[in-house]
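FAQ: What does the model actually see?

It sees only this:
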Amino acid sequence: MASAMAMLLACPASAQKNSKTQEAPKDPNEMVAYLFTYFNSNDPKDEQICYALSDDGYNFTPLNGGNPVISSDTIAFTQCVRDPHILRCEDGKTFYMVVTDMKSNLGWASNRGMVLLKSTDLINWKHSVINFPTRYTDKWKNVTRVWAPETIYDRKAGKYMVFYSLLTADGGHDKIYYQYANKDFTDLEGEPKYLFDAGSATIDGDIVFNDADKLYHLFYKQEGGRGIYQATASNLTDKWTKIDGNVEQTKEAVEGVGVCKTIDGKSWIVMYDCYANGHYQFCKSNDLKKFEFVQNTATKGKFTPRHGTIIPITRAEKERLLAEYGEKGNPILPDFHADPEVMYSNKTKKYYIYSTTDGVPGWGGYKFSVFSSSDLKTWKDEGVMLDVKSEQVKWATGNAWAPCIIERKVKGEYKYYFYFSAHNPKSNRKEIGVAVSDSPTGPFVASETSIVTDADRPGKRGGQAIDVDVFQDPKSGKFYLYWGNGFMAGAELNDDMMSIKKETVTEMTPEGGNLQTWAFREGAYVFFRKGTYYFMWSVDDTGSANYHVCYGTSKSPLGPISIDKDNYNVIKQDASQKIYGTAHNSVLQIPGKDEWYIVYHRINKDFMRDRRFGGPGVHREVCIDKMTFDKKGNIIPVKPTVAGPAPLKVK
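And it is asked to produce this:
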């Protein structure tokens, strides 16, 4: 195996890049995520436009730390806005947003208009205010509220229709009206025209066109029924036909429905605000006739979304939003990831994180992605660098877990050795493999077979060959591999970095302790500082709130490990901040400095106790915090934070 890999590494870089393992360049125009626009509460300071991102359309992470992305006092007559509706225009690159111009503490019959906004980058917006009493001084001077405007392209008219609920002081109830926008989306044409009335207060309308039945579908709230209802029409200005039955999958009071076609075009995401119970509810529909409950998303802390809408966005748009608004604290990576491995590359002068892809039942992820950063704050998704279900890895089929990587110069050129555990269907066990590249982001070429199996387990201890770590001893220059679940094993690597020296396999399991203290479970990690070898590991189960990191020290890269019974904790949960299960870490030293960071995962707070979604063990997110030492070299226990450390200053 070593000679075959040596031949592979000797191949020209161009040959490697043309191999089957090379992924096609990432299309910046590919739809990859969803943008959620919303406001946060009825407090005037929260009646502002906020953003959140999601890769699946159901689990969202707020941008800009949950703070507004547009200040209401710069755009609105009342200096407050609500109910943002966002639309991608027919040209694919222009965005329209309409919002209710309203300060709710003045009363529910206090708003008189709306704000129109236009952007080409989702960051910079031009706006126009439409105040009905001053604009329409005859018939509509007695308007008491103009609620929840939305925009849709009228295929028949070839114009953008803005529709909204309207009520006057002359009596009656809210009905849905419409006007067409001018070509610059800075004004509305004519005066309000009637569109739809359900017979009682009819508000919060949302319209989508369904290609399957060639009908427009209007979703709305009817105050008399306290739910979400639906009507259809062949054309927007035709008579609408009401459909029997409610859409929502709850008995709670709901409002602010938003409907969005999924990126793959196979179904619809239907979401609405359970405003009295502090959460959003998400449903799925394949035909806009039957609606299936997906999940309730709790609204807590700075993420308390009210009446918003979502749209699919491209990879380029996602990256632009993350660059502008995404560098605001923990977690540092989008979506669900676990078991992070951090590395600084001397070749590129950047930092990289490799992790287990999470959010999959049974820890069933099979892809490893890599993220890069120059300041440890803003992270760029570099894409999938290894897929164990593909031709890249011939011996494994799934359970791509807990990777590690090391940079080494080979004959003057940098090489990257990526170690990982995965499921081998032949042995029906988890085993450890290796893949190699001349770039931190790939392409990576994996070994033909695994390099560590159950046969390499020291002694008679049970457990799996998982959670691998790689380490270079700065004293001897030798390389070592560590692994284990329920036990900790270590061995020296051969010079090819593709195999271990079997005769050096050593059992290193730290002895003593229990599940509440320092008993070794998994996640070994090794680093060297000022003459001391530090060994870290995770305690308790990955789905436990008690999952935490402990450490010991040694004078040798293969132990034995000593534990100071007064100084063994590295990082533990902080329930007061709703930070749970902080463990399975790696460590980063800033090159040339005695400055250290711990990169770890935590359990997403919204999934902490909800077993319906596979339990807390599969909804983990990656965080980073600073790590310091006392004068004796003891690690000072790290307090996990929401904000994370300050970004590094990039020269």
